[in-house]
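FW: tagging you since you asked about this chain on Friday. Here's the raw sequence from the shared folder, copied in full. Didn't touch anything.
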Amino acid sequence: MNRFLDLFLAWLVAEKGLANNTRSAYAADLTRYLDYLEHHQREAPDAIMPSDIAAFLGKERERGLAPRSRGRLLSAIRMFHRFLLTERYATTNPASLIESPRPLKKLPSFLNGAEVEQLLGSARGKRPEDIRDLAMLELLYATGLRVSELVGLKLREVNLEVGYLMTMGKGNKERLVPIGAAARARVADYLEQVRSRQDPDGVKPHLFLSRLGDAMTRQAFWNIIKKRALLAGVRTSISPHTLRHSFATHLLANGADLRSVQIMLGHADLSTTQIYTHVTRERLKQLHKELHPRG
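HL: got it, structure written out here
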């Protein structure tokens, strides 16, 4: 089979115009593949079965090759077999039946309860920016909003008396999200003590304003949460999305049903919300390992 590799590499340059680096990567990947086939006595293109390709990829997984790298490897194998079929060195393409490896989903990072309290505590001051920052952090943790949804909130979209807000999520889909008592109190403090002085006539539409009275930006809030985490001594890597992850994880850990959390987060697909069930399971496993006498 190795005799076809040189033909394939020449074809890549002549027909596909691939760069030398890409050609070298294909050569390295396919050399391992063809050595595997030779070891298993597959001496002709039509002797190769889909099960051979699957077994080779399985061996690569066992030796620690990441899903992304296995996907690149399969791409090279597919192109190689497409070449064999196109140039009539083979009558079938066994690679066409092999699915690409699914990349592992990275579990979202979140704060534990103590870290949330530390973060909120860093903004419990009397300065206008403290009052505003605490209101924003409390509201973000209470509702699981995306940062773009938080800074885009309009005054008319928040009803503190009823305890709900209306937000426009991805795909221009509106959703109602409940606001807890703590967040309602902090937002009310901000409206009374800070915002009413910045915009006494109530002509500015956005709920949260910068020190200059403009609408808050995503980057400005990113800087706020980084600063507050530093002041709080929170060691967990943090971003505005961390509080959204914490909101969902803590709800599920305390018995909320997945469908309700999906609605509050504004996920179109339940499978997107299910990642948080993995987080809670991993957390339970870690707690068991740390606390059980036979962990």
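FW: The domain at 113-291 is CATH 1.10.443.10 (hpI Integrase; Chain A).
HL: agreed, and The beta strands are 158-159, 164-168, 174-178.
FW: great, closing this out.
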